[in-house]
Amino acid sequence: MSDLSHAEAVAEEIRTAIGRVVRRLRQESGMPNHQVTALWWLERHGPMTASGLAVTERITPQSMAVTLAALYDQGFVDRTPDPHDRRQILWSVTTRGREVVVEDRARRARWLVTAIDEELTGEETARLRDAARLLNKIMDRSEAGGA
Q1: Where is the HTH marR-type domain (predicted)?
Q2: Residue 14's domain spans which residues?
């Protein structure tokens, strides 16, 4: 087996495993994933326009408007005129929305901690930590403009 085909096999296993983990973590959320993701972006990056948020999420502005309207109705986001362009609206996370983000992250983390504790040995947990570090190394290079 050549190195390339071995790398391809490893890449496929990683892609499949990550996909399964992500889907399972999404099940732990108490709200639809598109709403949680919009809240996360706003919480991490501060106020944004609906169109800017739509670009980051790779969805249509119309879909983002529906998501933000639902979050607004629940009191998770607020809207204010953009001080630089009064025609634009900036969306931001409210205190209640920030609490939802924190609770959501904690719920997902609890599930993962429990799964690791119940399913893996100490040695396997250490190997998983090493794998996480390696994945982060790949992502650091990728985000810096590498492969």
Answers
A1: 1-140
A2: 3-143
Which residues sit opposite 5 in a β-bridge? none
How many Å apart are CA 17 and CA 111, to the nearest integer? 16
For position 65, which CATH number holds?
1.10.10.10
Q: Tokens in use for 44?
A: 């991490």
Sign of CA dihedral 77, 81, 83, 88: positive
- Tell me the backbone φ, ψ of residue 121, rounded to 5 degrees: -80, 170
The continuous run of DSSP H or E covering 85 comes out as strand 85-93
The helix-helix angle for 50-57 and 61-73 (nearest 10°) equals 110
Give me the mean pLDDT over the 48-61 stretch.
94
Is 28 exposed, middle or buried, given 0-12, 13-18 or 19+ CB atoms closer than 10 A?
Answer: middle
Region of residue 58 (left: phi > 0; alpha: psi -120 to 50; beta: else): left
Q: Please give the model's pTM, rounded to 2 decimal places.
A: 0.78
Which residues, listed in sequence order, are joined to residue 48 by a DSSP beta bridge? 91
Flag whether pLDDT at 17 surpasses 90: yes
C-alpha–C-alpha distance, residues 110 and 35, integer Å? 20
**Number of domains within the chain:** 1
